[in-house]
Each structure stands twice: as C-alpha cells, then as structure tokens.
Protein 1
Amino acid sequence: MVTEAGRQRPGAGSHRPAAGGQGTVQARFAQVARIFFGCLLSIASLFISGCMRQEAPADITILNGAEPQSLDPALLTGQADMRVAIGMFEGLTRLDPTNAQAIPGLAESWDISPDGTVYTFHLRTNLVWSTGEPIRADDVVYSWIRTLEPATAAEYAGQLYYLTNAEAFNTGRIKDPSQVGVHALDPFTVRVELNHPTPFFLDICDMPMSYVVPRATIEKYGDHWLMAKPLPSSGPFELVYWRLNDKVRFKKNPLYWDAANTKSEIIDILPVGSANVAINLYEHGEADIVWDKDLIPAEILDVLLQRPDFHTFNYLGTYFVRFNVTRKPFDDPRVRQALAMAIDKKRIVERISKGGEEVATHLVPDGTADYTSPDGWGYDPVLARKLLAEAGYPGGKGFPPFTYLYNASAGGSSKIHEKVAIELQQMWHDQLGINMELHQVEWTAYLDALTSLNYDVARSSWVGDYDDANTFLGCFVTGDGNNRTGWSNPQYDSLVHQANAEVNVKKRGQLFQQAETILVRDQLPVIPLYFYEGINYFDTNKVQGIYENILDDHPLQSIAKVK
Amino acid sequence: MSDLHGHISPARRAWLRFLKNRPAVISAWFLIALLAVVVLWPFVLKMSGARFAQTHAPDQLSDAQFAPPGAQHWFGTDVHGRDLFSRVLFGAQISLLVGVVGALLSLVIGVLWGAIAGYAGGRIDAILMRIVDVLYSLPTIIFVIVLLATLGEVIKESSLVKNSPSLESGLRVALLVAALGAVSWLTMARIVRGQVLSLRSRAFVEASRALGAKPHWVIARHIIPNIFGVVITYLALSLPAIILYESFLSFLGLGVEPPMASWGTLMAEGVSQINPIRIYWWLILFPGGILVATLLALNFLGDGLRDAWDIKNRD
Amino acid sequence: MYFVRRLIFAIPLLLVVSALSFFLMHLAPGGPFDSERAPASPQIEHNIRAKYHADEPVWKQYLEYLRGLAHGDFGVSYKYLDHSVSDIIEQGLPISATLGILAFGFAMGLGLPLGFFTAARRGRWEDYAGSFLAILAVCIPGFVVAPILILVFSIKWQLLPVGLWETPWHMVLPPIALGLFFAGKVARLMREGMLNAVQSEFVTAARAKGLSENKLLLKHAVRIAILPVVSFAGPMLADLLTGSFVIENIFQIPGIGVFLVNSSQNLDYPLLVGLSLLYAILLIGMNLVVDFAYTLLDPRVKYE
C-alpha cells in the first residue's frame, strides 16, 4: 500500500517540507538531476547519432502519394504501390514510358495463334536476377501460379482469369497447377492458353500480378520476403531499403538485361500524404518530381497550371455518382436521369476540382484505345424537373429524404469528395427541390456499405487497369463485384460479352458503344461527373524521361536528371 | 470594523478580489460579448431581409469563391463561396457547446467520484482512487481516437440514423462530448477528494465544530464555498482544454463532420491551404484569431478565479 | 518493494489496454480487407480473410493475438503487408523518441527559466509579458504553430528545411512546434510552484537566516517549486515519445505518431493494439519514474 503522503501527492498535500531535511534534500536533488540529465543526454545522443544519415544523395527524388500497402507484385493493388514495384520487377512485357503500350520486356518476342487464344513467349537468353542467378521460363510459370494460388490471397488474381483453368485453380476447384494454361516448353519458352481471344492480353502481361518474382527468396522468407537482403530483382533497380513513411531507396541493377538504358544510379521515392507538404518540399528543392494527382493543392491550381513545370494530360479515370437502384425512388430511371441533368458539372470542374478536367457525360474516358463513347445527358434543369414530375415528384414534392455517402479523404488532402458532396446537395436542392443528407464515413466503412448495397447515393471513381473500354464497362455486368449498384440489364450483359469474344477491333468497339449507350443514356445507374486529369509537376529543364500517358504510369528506368 | 469584516462570506471576498484582477474582468466581458453575438446572430439573420440572410447563411453556396473580406462578406468567403463570418459564429456554437457540456460532464462525474471517496474514506476511498490511478495510466488519446473512429461509424450504421438521417450530426456531437468528458474527469475527482479530505480535518472546521456549530452550518459555511471555488475554477480551466482537444480531433477528421463546422474544422480548412504560392489569409486569421482569443480569455478568467479563491495549482 | 508491486500490477493493466483496443476496433463496420476493386470472385476475398484468420470469432482472434504476444510477437500489420508491427515500431520509435526528447528539452529549457523569471519579477511588467506569452503558448494548437513556423522560417526566410528528418537542420522546427505548448505549461507550473514555495515555512525559515533573496530563490525555492513540474513531466514525456500525428504529418517525419490515427481508421487491429500497448508501457514507466523521483526529491513522500 501507499502511505497517505504518497497517495496524496498528485492531488492535494500542501508542500511543507519536514524540518531538518535540508541537507539530504539538496543531495538527493543533485543526485536525481544527475541521473535524469545523464539518461536524457545518453538517450538523445544515441538516437541522434543513429538517425544521422551518412548516405549519398539521390539522383532523383520522387514524391509518390500514399505509402505502398505492399510491394509484393501479387498482393499490391494501389497505383502508388505499382509505381514503386515497377522499378524492381518486370513481366514478359513492360510499359513503353512514352505511351504506356506493352513492349517486349523479359520476353524478346511472341507468337499469337490465329484465333487469338494461344500466346507463345520467347524469353531473352541473358536474363539474370540482380543476385546473379538466371531467370528462366520456370520462374515465369512459378510467378503466375503463385498469384493464382489461393493461399497467396492475391486480390488481383482475377486479372489472370483469362488463362484456361485459372479461375478454377484460384477458387480451389482444381488443385493441380499444371492444368492452368501457362507452361514452360523449354527454359526460354512460355506457352499461354486463354479461354477466349483477349485483345489486351499483352497489357495484362505488364501488370504487377504477372511480374516475375524470385522463387528461392519467397520460399525461404515467406510473407516477409520483401525485407530479405539481398532481394533479387528482375527489373532495372535493386531495393536498398524501404522504411515506412520515410522512403524507398533504389540503386541501379547492373545485371538487368537493359541496364545500359537505365538513366539514374539512385532514386528515392517518398510517400507523402498531403498536397501542402508536397508543394512545400518541391518548391524548396527537396524533391524533383511530384506525380500523384492527389498531391496538387486545388486552391492554387489556377496559378500552378500557368507554370511550365506543371503538366496535365488525359488519364483513364472517371469520377462518378452511384445509385443504389434497389432502393426507391432510385429504381426509376427517370429519377436517375433527372438527378443527372440537374448537375452543373461545369461548375464542379471549374470551382472544385480545378485541374482543367473534362466534364463527363459518359463513363469511358476519351482517348481510350480503339473506342469512342456515345454522348450522355448534359446539364438541362428544365428537362430534369419534367422527368422528376413524370416520376411522380413534381417540384420535388414527396421525394423521400436520402443520404449521399462519401469517404473521408485521410490526412490533409484537399477533401474533394466533401466539396463535391456539398455542391451536389445544393444543386439538387435548388434545381429539383429535393433534400439530401451528407454521410461521411471512413474508407473501410465506405467500401463495406457499397459492397453490401447499404446506401442511397454514393460517390465513386474508377481508374482503368489497362487501356481498353472493358476495364470500365465490364464493371456493370450483372453480378460483377464492382457493379455495386444492384443494377442488372440482360441486354447490356450480352453486348459486353459479345464484345469480349469479338476479334475484330472495329466491331468490338461498336458493341461496347451500344452497351455504353444503355448505361449512360437509358438506364443511368451511375452519373459520370468528370474525367480525371493526370497532373504531375517537374521542371523539364532539370528532369527528363517522364512522359504523359493515359495510364499515368511512369517506368523509373527512363527518368534522369538533365546533366 | 472587525465585526463587518467577519461577516464577509468567502464567496463575497473572492468576488471582490476577482474584480480587482483587470485581465480576468476584461476576459469575462469579452466572453459575454462573444456569447451574445453568437446567440443573437441567427436571430439577426432571421429578422433581416431575405437578401442579407441569403448572402450570410452559413451553408449558402455562392459564386463568390474565396472573396477577400469586404463590405458584403466581413470575413471573406471559402471555397464554396460561403460567408466566413457566419460560419465562424455558427462554428462557435458547436465549439462552445462541446466545451461547456464536456466540461460539465467531467465536472459532474469528477465531483461525485471525488466527494464520495473523500467522505467515505477507508476502503471505498482506496478502491475508487485506485480506479482513477488505473485510468490515469491508460493511453487516453488512443481511446478517444478509437472510440470516435469506431463508435462514430457504428452510429452511422445504426437503424436510428438510417431512419432519420438528420439525427446523425447531433449524435456525433453527443459522442464527441461524451468521449471528451469521459477522459477529463480524473483530475477533478482527485482535486475534489483532496479538498474534502483536507477540509474535514482543517483547523477552522474542527474549531467551529468544537464550538458547537451544527454540521449543516459547517457544510454551508466552510465546505461548500471551498469546493465551489475549486469547481468553478476548474470549470473555467478545463473549458479551454476541451475546446482545444475538440479542435485537435477535428483537425484529424474525427470531430464534427460537414456540413457542420466547428472552430477546429474551420482552422483545419484554413491551415490546410498554407503554401508557398498563395494564401487566403482570412481563412486562417479569423477562425484562428477568435479561437485563440477565446482560449486566452478563458485561461485568464480561470486564473483570476483561482487567485480569487486562493486555490493552489494542482494541474 | 512498492515499485516491484507496481510493476506486477502493470501486467493486468496492459491486458486491459490490449483487450479494450482490440474489441473496440472490432465494433466498427467493415474490415481491413475491404477493397475498392471488388475481387473477380468471392473466393478471392475468402482466400484473403482465411489468410489472416479474419473469419474466426473475435474472442478467438484475441486469444490468438495474446498467444503471439506471449512469444514477443506483435503480429503483422494488415495495412502494410510486408512489415510486422515490431518492424514498424522499431523503425518509427527512435525517430519519434528523438523528436520527443528534443521537444521535451525545448519545453524544459524555455519553460523552467521563464517560470522562474516571471515568479522572481512578480507583479512587474516582465511578469505580465512573460505570463502572457506562457498562456498564449498554451492556447495555440500545434497544427497552427507548425504551418506558421514553416511559412516564416522555411518559405519566407529560407533558413530551415520545410520537412523530412535527415540532418540536424531538419530537427529544429518540429521540436519547437511540438514543444511550445508544453513550454507554456511548464512555465505556468513553475511560476505557480515558485510563488507557493516562497510562501512556504521552509523558505521563510531560510529567509530568516538572512540569505539573500536571489540565493534563496535559486537554492531553496526551486527545489520545492519543481515538484509539480516533475509530476507533469512524466505523462508529458510519454506523450512526446510516442510522437505526434499532427507534427509528424505536417513535417513529413517518419515516426510512429502517424500510424496511430491511420491504423484506427484502416482497422489495422494488430498495429493499433501494438501501439496502444507501447504507449501504455511508456506511460506506466514514466509514472513510476516520477514517483521514484519524488521519493528522492521530497523526503515527506515515502512508499512502503
């Protein structure tokens, strides 16, 4: 137990020292002070010496948005993750930095069967890991099978479902990996069999889940293999270290097959969560490149866009609003059309997003390969009111109150979702006389609500995985996990399926066009608001090798400081 | 003369001493004025013409995006063209409400807990105070954050909110108040217990008891005034602490949620646009200036009360 | 003996902390593995949940967690899949701790002399000015101080870096922004303590012995006056060592403060529970140190 004096200490107790305690108190005080400051000094010096970095400055410092969730190519999902992993690993094809098209990577060439379902890849013969061991066809097969292995729990495994039996293997219906349509014919040849012709399959081969990863290291270190030292890499750079919220440091991999064209020796990639930090670091010269569109402070975009070091370009991403069509009154297409036509999208791009974004009336962004979208509905409040009246809510009378769901953007980013929500709330109120509550939730709760159709209207966005209309339109097929609106239309489904089985590029485009017309004119389970604009900033007089491309992906190999 | 002096009650003595404290008195007037403006502003909006109300309604969007302070918008406007003056005043409602209710809540729990422990003494005292000790060594920040992050989501998914969405913001504020009050009563409990404990055995209490004073006279004359001083002082001092805490949580995005605003969210909006290229200074200066001025006034007031009641610092 | 008992008592306390944070987190809707892109087949989601035992009842997951903890294993972060919780703490804690110790040094270095000075000049204009500054420091939130410091010292005058944590120059502004509030607090406590001490019988006795006023303040009053500061310093240091979300976020410092908020929003259970345990351990430890310092400083306090 504690004595009374002891227990009273923090609360009460007038501090009246006992008489005669002077000498001892003084000595004790000195003692405590010595111990205390001694400890403090030693801890401080220890930490400070530990934190001082004696390291070479990087050739290029890049600010990259959120901290990667993972750099394991099979597991990573975010674009920020992918932009880092692309430095370390490579697939059979790789991205052309100038236009994001697939060009030969680890495979030197390939043959495609006339029906478009069998690909035969020929590997380069000089391939080695950064640790010196050779890379062979078996490694490719291992990497792909690893992505599909149920125990790997790869979220993007679905991108390899184009392979025969891949889905069955991934879902556990087949246990034998040799039945999956990827085989090593000899050390330098990989044969891939597909379920049906897939025009964008070469793009699939340069996506992270098809990167070639080091088998021996993974088997030795398990889940934490990325922390292994040395970490064998198949790409242009090796990992020096990765400290969370600090940086990823890369150094050139001299054994990479195309090392002659690797332009930088050391690259630092910093995760930065807030646009203000990013612009501060950049303006202060501590970073060379900022390439995440969330790292642009919207308040000053009008000034920034005038500067030569700010670059904007078309980008495969759409910001849109989802309806839960299983709930009244959003089950009525006229209501959805009315809400769409009452939105002044121009005001939103001019006042809120401000990056020179294009207003969207259709879902698939302009500039998508081999495809032109049909036009959707424009801003037409008069027709909107008419449609709403036809649906039984003249002047918004009787329209049930509903909520608009959006996710809080973490940290100090520019809160774009909240701003858009506030604008929509006002526009629908002013034009249609309907009232909506805002409903902000955390990311995880937001996804949960979308998936379980536990919302009325919600914000959403979609960024293309590859340059093809299917990456957008495929989402809204009945039962697709990304549908998340409860919307189902047999005609739409069959058009999308027909398009995907079609080898002729032009016919395929027409089928997709018919499908999208249903989506954005007749039915409207989603309202496209605007197309994302790719924005990055770097001084072209100091940095070269970054190109504007529709996927907004930038292979690290070509980036260099101008000497 | 001595007769007169003897009849001045402790409360009156404290009051006279308080009036001599210039900063505290000025602070009190400032707070009263602020409160009056905050309370009256909504009525002004209602009474004035439609156009005035339209331009000054806190949630009304307009084309005047980022307008600097001027004749029409006295504090300027924000990204949606909303009037900042109105937003600061409506934000004050939330901030002050959260502060006052949170402080009162912590006060009620703290006084009850401390008084029971102090009066009962012995085993009960030991147990109650040991619980306080335990709670003291829990990481409160973490629990407040987790509580707001998780229970906040639970509220949103609850059927109550699903049926009447307008309840949500109210419940959110209630949760915020509960969380803040629940973590700040510990100090109060310790102070009150110490006070009660020492009062019970204080010389003048025992003396008046020995002189035959009835218990209720002792309580009314000595214990209540003494505790009253502590309580009032503590209230004034914990108010700014809770308001500051709320602004911190709002900055993290855990406080009140849009379209509601508090000083914290307004400040967060203001500082989040500090950058090397262009700064809308009014978005920082006005919410920040009023927040800091209010906190300063509350602190001066608290200090003045403490000096007036002659209470030793037990922070 | 008392301290040994306190240490043993800490173990159930830590259990309470871990259980509270673990179960509170599980109340939130959604889970750490929800993702923006729906998996191509429900089986994929099932694979992920199976890998992290997310389908088992919560109490079972907690027991599993405790079992790992008994072996010194804090588990794997659900958000940073390649890192274990111990790795994350190991990387971030030294940085947060350095920042915290520097801020602590700043708070003490500024607060103690200011408190002493204002007390010594009680009632004069120096007292008013100093006390006003101390109150002002307590009233301005850190998330306002930090951007303003950056604006003035980094952007306008170009004297110091705007962020990151690499050279000693990077370690100037963040500790100031973090420590300013505490400096004000310490100054106020110190001034208060000094004024109380001067009135105490002990100092009156010393004054009667004819010691000069300055010597009196320096040699005798300070020792008593510092007691409230000491009891405040313990929890304060625990606070500072675990880092500050706001300061680390604004200055882009790779400490652990940032994870505290992120992990609760991402429902990264293992990381959050690990961090709360760390914080609780520090807090308990610091309170022990404070009590220990009391027994040495103040002969009236004794623990059985």
Note: Chain C touches chain B through 50 residues (CB under 8 Å).
Protein 2
Amino acid sequence: MNWDIVIATLSATIKAGTPLLLATLGEILAERAGILNLGLEGMMLVGALSGFIICFLTSNPWIGLLVASISGAIIALIHAVLTITLRANQVVSGLAVTLFGTGLSGFLGKMVIGVPIAHYFTPIGIPGLERIPFLGPIFFNQDPLVYLSYLLVFFIAFWIYQTRPGLHLRAVGENPAAADTLGVNVYGIRYLYTLIGGALAGMAGSYLSLAYTPVWIENMTAGRGWIAIALVIFATWDPFKALLGSYLFGLVDAVQFRLQAVGVAVPSFFLNMTPYLATIIVLIFATTETARRRIGAPAALGSPYEREEKS
Amino acid sequence: MSLILERRESPSTLVNFLVPVLSILLALLLGALIIKLSGFNPEVAYREMLSGAFGSWYAISETMVKAIPLMLCALGVGFAFRTVLWNIGAEGQLYMGAWAAGWVALSFPHGQSWWLIPLMMLAGFLAGALWGLIPGILKASLNVSEIITSLLLNYVAILWVDYFVYGPWKDPKGYGFPFTPFFGEGAWLPTFFGTRVHLGIIFALVAAVIIYFLLKSTRLGYEIRVIGENPQAARYAGMNIFRTIIVVFLVSGGLAGLAGMAEVSGVIHRLQHAISPGYGYTAIIIAWLSRLNPLVTLLVSILFGGLLVGGFSVRSIGLSESLVYVIQGIILFLLLAGDLLTRYRFSWRKNAG
C-alpha cells in the first residue's frame, strides 16, 4: 500500500466533495424554510460562469467568489418571487431555474471558452495543522474555499439548532401558520433563506471554475446540483451529515478518477456513471431509512403559505 | 380599499388561453433585451430566427422534423404530469430508445423495412419504457423521489450511448468520430415529399389521439385523473396506485424511447454522440405550456421546434444557440407567474375597521 496515493486520493476527495457540500448546505437552509429549490444546477452554472468572468477581469478570485454568490442569489430571487409571493408550483419553478441558468451560462459563456485565468484559488497549508501526520495534508493543505466550507458547516449547524433565528427558521418550515401566529415573518424568512441557498449554490459553482478546474466549460457542473439535492435527503437536513455525504461522493469521484488515471480495464464511460448510480442507491437507502425512523422532510416543504385573511 | 387576491371558483377559459400566449410574447421581448445587451440587433436576430423556422417550405419542414421528437417526449411527460408524477427523464429514455433501435438496425444491415422498422419501434419503445420503469418502481414501492432518479438516469443513458459510439460500435471508416456506420436502408423511416419529415410524425399523431381517448374514456384514464387530483380519495376508493404509477412510467418512458427511435431511424440514420439537443427537457416546458392537453401539445411542439431551428439559424449572425434555452426558461417563468391569474383574481375590498 502506497500511503502517498491514499493521501492524494483522500485530498482529492475533499476537493471533489466541497462544491457538493456548499450546494447541499444552501439547499438545506432553503428546505428548512419550506422552499424546495430544484434549480441548484442552474444557479451553480450561473455562479461558475459569473465568478470566472469576474476573476478573469479583476484577476481576483475573491471578487469572483463574491459576484458568483450574488448572481446565485439573484437567480434564486426569481424562484422566491414565483413560489413565495405568486405561490407557483415549486417543482416546475425549480426546473425553470435550472433550464434558464443552463441556457444563460451557455449563451454568455461562449466568449470565455478556453480562456485561461492567471489567478485562482490554490492550496494554502494551515501552519501547524498541516504537519499533523496523515490528516494534515488531507484536510489542512487545501484552498481557502475548503476551509470556508468547514466553518460554514459548524456555523450553519449552530445557527439552526442553537439560535433564536434558527428556531424561527425551523418553525417556518414545519408549521408556518403557527409561526405566523407567534409573530414570525414567514414570507420574509422564506425569501431570506432561499436567497442564501442561491448564494451558496453560486459559491459552489464558482468553486468548480475558480479552484477545481480553473477554466469555463459549458455544463461544467455535470449534474452536481442534482446530486446535492439527493444529498439533502441523505443528510436528513443536517449540516454535519451533509459533510459526510458530500465527502462520500467526493470519494467516489476521486476513486473513479484515479482508476481512470492508472488505466483500469473498465471503460471510462462506466466509471463516469458511478456518481449518478451511487446517488440513486444512496437515495433509496436514505428514503427508506427516513421513512422508517419517521424523520422526514420539514412538514411544510413544497407547499406555499397562504395567510388566512381576517375579514 | 385594498387590492386582494381572491380564489377563482372555476378557471377562466380566456385566461387559460391568454396566459400562455402572453408568456411567449413577453419572453421573446425579454429575449430581445438580452440580445441587445449582448451587443446584437434583436430585430435582425428575430428576423433570422423567423425566416429560419417558418420562412419557406424548407424551413417549415425542418421545424416539423424537430417537432416530432418534442411531440412524442412531451406527450409522455404530460401523461405522467397528469398523475402528479414528474418524469424529468425523457432525455435519457430517448437515448435508450435510440440505442435499442440502433442495436436492432446494426444487427440486421440488410433487413427489409416491413419487419425491421416495426422491430426497431418495439425495441425503442421497450428500452424507453424500461428506463422509465426504474424511477417508476422506486417511486411506487419505496416512495423514492422520481424527480431526482429520473433526472440522474439521463446522465447514465447518455454515457451508455457514448460508450458504444466511442467504442465497440464505432464506424471503422469514420476517422475516429463518435458515430456508428449508417444503418441499412431498410432501417430508414420513409420521408414525405422530398423533405426530411418522416413517418415519426404519424407516430406522434397516433400517440396523441390514443392518449386523449385513454384519459377521457377508459378506466385507467379515470384512475389517472383521480389519483392526480386527489390521491387520498383514490386510495379510499380502492384504486391500485402502485399499478397506475408503473403503467404511467412505462407509457411515458416508452413514448420518449419511440422519439429516440424515430430520430435515429428517420433523421440521423445512425447512432452518434449527442443525438438530442435537450428534447427531453424542452418537452417538460411544452407539456406544462399546453396545460397537459395532448392535442394542444402537438401545436406547441411545432412552435418549439421552430424555436430550435430558429436558434440554429441565429448562429449565422454570431449568436449562440443557447439563446433558445434562455428564452425557454423565461417562457416557463412567465407562465408560472401567469398561473396565479388562472387560479386567483384581483378584487378590491373595503378594509374592515
């Protein structure tokens, strides 16, 4: 057993898992507020492209990241207006977001295909921690966005479970009418978390174009948005389990990539199928498990809130 | 006085018609804005699109060619929507249908069309149906989200076809390009009047009529409508929801598979990488836009076929054909916003106190 290969594969696991983790965290927040957003794929693509273009123009990946998050949130705003204010069907609206985002990024991205960028996110070891044997090079010799994703997991978990706004968030997703009676602004909270979900999806997309493979490729998300939506169910809407699930998929990705690199006898097309098939298998287990243990989705997920008008 | 939304007792026919029409017009207007912002002349672009799609008999025939797979896929997707089942997998089912039909055609290079084409139709329909059956069974037995499974299977199906056209079935005389040799002429669908419009259009017409009557006047159609409108009531009435879900996915996937068969047998005459420019996804919009009515679906498919052909022709002035998908997305957004008007009406009400 060659330890260098193990460490390299696990380090690649974290990298491949990070865009999934960011997108999953965002979707967890939106779904906790009762809004299902199937537009992750579209928001990620718009984030990937806008981040890339801005980084190309400013030579600063941080500004790219910021713009990617904002543009993800803007696309999410369309979904929010349609589903929260206009009470449109959340499934169809989410699909429309994906179609629109895919089209828009393809349309505007034509001009930067094959353009290289000089500055992007590169690994920076954390002094001290990177020297921990085995774990150091895997977890603490990564790019800044990976570290940001670690912090976000802890912060979002703390926010959801330990704070008052987190309590309001959960209330809005479980029982909006009761939350409303207690004076919680249901519409406002739903808007807020849908936008945050979009911002995180935009960030996830820009991870792909500013860190993972620093170029723009049409449809470069390759279904990761949909895998993230499945991961939310796998994670039972919990940030820590989202981390676990994302890295599990990162591992599938990293291993199939390594197998291709060493030229195993299985054609690459079949290896490329593994993340999608693995998602389906995991989804089957997650669905039956959550049903058995009765830890389902937020009770109001997918249904518009209609305030009872007093006359 | 304040402006409020009031639920409509019954949907208004006028609004039901106006909302989709206005959505399309407004989307084209917004599309013009995007074209202008990206530094092109929207008038030139739209004139190019219109003449490319409907400007001549040739253009119209090409629009019909693109409309055929859209019709078949959208009929299938709309059929599933009726039971509030989301088949987002028409794209993959189309690829599997094309693959199976291609397999048959390549196995019998000298086959006679009177038996080879029905065999390819059967293979295409079955492959699409089986591919649709996977999310169907998972939904019906374990309640696994069919949205996610059917969508992920699209990626798998495309890779599956890629394996064959890049690998074992690749044309040895194709200079390494990812396509198979041409099918024997017995595997080609007949075309009409010297155009590329092929027999697939008849498949679509027949399918639309069958679905229309299936929904309207059979027991299965009745159960589908009840399950779609009120699953609780359907369960109390003792309807077999499991069986209905399975049947719906088989039919839905089968139609998309048939679309794939018609595309390779009628137009491309071989299997290749990237058979479809996203017919299965566009079909979702068409099904929704046509209010899930099978006959309206045919007309809307022609419109979207024109949009696709027009999208290819704007490339001549340097615009990306992805513009079409942007406009499609906007149409769907506007349609969803407009749906509010079909379900609610605005009315003034005096404020109490």
Note: The mean pLDDT of chain B is 90.
